[in-house]
Specification:
This protein has helices at about 1-20, 20-40, 40-45, 135-140, 145, and strands at about 45-50, 70-75, 80-85, 90-95, 100, 105-110, 115-120, 120-125, 130, 150-155, 160, 175, 180-184. It is α/β, with parallel strands linked by helices. The protein has one domain (about 1-184): Rossmann fold (3-Layer(aba) Sandwich). It starts with a helix and ends with a strand.
Length: about 180
């Protein structure tokens, strides 16, 4: 039952996100990046797993010039393979239209991360997330892989909701960051 409710909610929230004007999208993304930079959790992290904005997800690109080891995912089969990347290095679009590092870029295991910035369609106050439905991040966030790594769901305020429908395989995040708040 939760999965069918997710489909309806996902469609509604993606539509709302697409309706943000470019100025609103950039302004709200900027506020989130500023909030992240102020966190000790972020400041202390050496290796950060992030994402390139897709379909008007929160744009984190202003962070990428900071002195961190940045890693970004490529979808390979049903999993995410992470690659180190620095500004100026080439990117390609994958089969979903998402920018990714080149396959030849050095890869890194998920256990090497100090912090994972997780893209979301929505998050709730219990720290569950709603993604696109492919399960890529659910598999990544499996406690057997990343139990000691902090995860932050990145979401606009309108998509930070009271309670999302949850399936048995859904994994809670450690934190949620919006333009107006950081919750733990």
């Amino acid at each position: 039952m939760a999965s069918s409710n997710k489909v309806v909610l996902r469609k509604k929230l993606l539509k709302q996100r697409q309706e943000l004007s470019p100025a609103q999208w950039q302004s709200q993304s900027h506020l989130i990046c500023e909030r992240l930079q102020s966190l000790a959790l972020f400041k202390e992290a050496t290796t950060v797993f992030a994402y390139f904005s897709f379909r008007q997800e929160v744009d984190l690109s202003s962070l990428f010039s900071l002195n961190k080891n940045w890693a970004f995912p490529r979808c390979v089969g049903r999993s995410l393979v992470w690659h180190l990347w620095q500004p100026g290095e080439a990117l390609v679009k994958d089969k979903y239209g998402i920018q990714t590092p080149l396959e030849t870029t050095p890869s890194i295991t998920c256990t090497a991360a100090d912090l994972i910035l997780v893209p979301t369609v929505a998050c709730d106050r219990r720290k569950y997330r709603l993604g696109y439905g492919g399960g890529f991040y659910d598999r990544l966030l499996n406690p057997l892989q990343v139990s000691n790594i902090s995860t932050i769901g990145i979401v606009f305020d309108f998509a930070y909701v009271g309670e999302l429908p949850v399936d048995p395989w859904d994994i809670k995040l450690n934190f949620v960051c919006t333009p107006s708040k950081f919750t733990n």
